[in-house]
């Protein structure tokens, strides 16, 4: 726009200068014609009265010459002013061009600095995440080393009792981690009973049954373990008894039930405990559903047909619809925000690609790496 205005101003000045020169030439021609005419008249009058009018005509001629010189000086002054205005206009055009170039360089520098800062922030974030991940892995490795050292220390003690205690601890830890809702208790040394008791609880925290565990880590299997474990099961009021042993009975190759006791290895106890626990929960739920069944059906019917249930369900439905509408509004707002940011990112990538092309044209394509990400070489950059 500034270039178009400047060119129009130049054309106006040129037209004014041409018009002024034409007027000046016409005026000079007219003055010259008038002077010639006056000279002819003066010559005729001189011929008639040379002595009488010579001084008067000479004075008029000198006055006309002075007026012509004055007008010529005025014309030259106006021409000088015009040339000065043209020069000033040229200077302003050069200054404007210089200002535009300087502003373009500043904007490019600011954009480059912004891109570098964003790239630095992205790398710093990746470095922070990497350090946190490394620390997390180091923490896990330290925990595993401590656990391995603890297990190795216990195993190196060499006694069968201590080896059995290691398996007992591992069994308790496995049960606690696998069934976080249940209560897993250790039976102290010298106390009559099994090594470990698992109180099965449902999602409401209700006690549904008991499972007792006996851990053995010996080379030979003894049938006396079964009788002792069944006596512990009756003493503790447990529903199921599980014997975890390294040595299986000769007539059993894998886990199974024998004389009312479940027998398995340590690698099988997790799956067996899950199946038995699920069965206890199902039996408890079935038994509970049969208690006062008729009375509960009437109470349930009265509640479902009551105004209280209707109002509560209406409130739940209104809350659900309100939450759904709010979620949809948030989703629409986020999609609009993502579109705006996507456009901004495309603009940044486009400008960075232009800068990259300019620098590569000057310094060579292999001199400076100005890629913003790894995807820029795969055609994600505009252009």
Summary, kept brief:
The protein contains six helices and six strands, in the order H-H-E-E-E-H-E-E-E-H-H-H. With 383 residues, it is of the alpha/beta class.
List keywords for this structure.
383 residues, alpha/beta, Trna Endonuclease, Chain: A, domain 1, 6-stranded mixed sheet, 6 helices, disordered C terminus
For the biggest sheet, the summary is: 6 strands, mixed
Total strands: the figure is 6
Percent of sequence in beta strands: 5-15%
Categorize the overall geometry. Answer: rod-shaped
Structural account:
By secondary structure, this protein is of the alpha/beta class. It has three domains: 1-123, no CATH class; 179-291, Trna Endonuclease, Chain: A, domain 1 (3-Layer(aba) Sandwich); 321-378. It has six helices and six strands. It has helices spanning 2-156, 160-178, 224-236, 269-290, 293-304, 307-363; strands at residues 183-186, 196-201, 207-216, 240-245, 256-258, 261-264. Strands 1-2-3-4-6-5 form a six-stranded mixed beta sheet. β2 and β3 (207-216) form a beta hairpin. α1 packs across α6. It is rod-shaped, with a radius of gyration of 53 Å.
